[in-house]
Amino acid sequence: MIVAVALGLALLIQAFLVKPYRIPSESMVPTLEVGQRVLVNRVVYRLGDPGIGDIAVFHPPTGAASNECGAEHSLEQACPRPTSERSDVNFIKRVVAGPGDRLRIEDGRAIVNGKRAKEGFTRQCGGGEQCNLPEEIKIPEDHYFMMGDNRGASDDSRFWGPVPKDWIIGKSFATYWPPDRIGIF
How far apart are CA 154 and CA 29, in angstroms? Predict the structure, then answer.
């Protein structure tokens, strides 16, 4: 009986409050390493909006698998809108801009509303077309622009557009594996 109650509580907590996720790729290096495990608060964005700098787990648009953008745009700008359907997979990235923000990318860094974002945690972009997107876009209402910290090795909103708020699962707030990287963000 005690085991059944404990199992039931664990499942309820995971379903509604806190869920563990494993980091599958190098897109968040150096902040999060491949295989590292994080805990995600599934309630926080139901009560408020994502903040710039938050590390969030979300469903990307279906176009993310093929870097498909949901709107025509210049090769000199990031994708301004996602495809209309969400994917069933989960991504983890950092929120770099929110609804109404104007954004462009310079040397892999987010320039939001004309100011370079303070992003000391990022890994350099390393060249390539995704590193410089000088034409500004405006983030649509209820959407958030997501980028990996490893700017040269991240498939993110630059390619497939901002993410609608209701596709965001939650905010990553702690890491619990491996033991030498345990901590709270």
Answer: 10
- For residue 93, which of 171, 178, 15 has the smallest C-alpha distance? 171
**From CA 185, how far away is CA 181, in angstroms rounded?**
11
Q: Model's pTM, two decimal places?
A: 0.91
The pLDDT tens digits for 110-151 are 999 999 998 888 888 877 778 999 999 999 999 999 999 999
**Residue 5: burial class (beta carbons within 10 Å; 0-12, 13-18, 19+):** exposed
- For 162, the domain range is 20-184
Q: Give the C-alpha separation, 173 to 109, whole Å.
A: 23
Q: Specify the DSSP class assigned to residue 8.
A: H
Structural domain count of the chain: 1
What residues are labeled active site? Answer: 27, 93
Look at residue 15 and tell me if it is in a domain: no
What are the phi and psi torsion angles at 100 (to 5°)? 85, -15
Kindly report the CATH number assigned to the domain that includes residue 58. 2.10.109.10
Residue 39 lies in a domain: yes
C-alpha dist (Å) from residue 106 to 41, 95, 103, 127:
32, 17, 10, 11
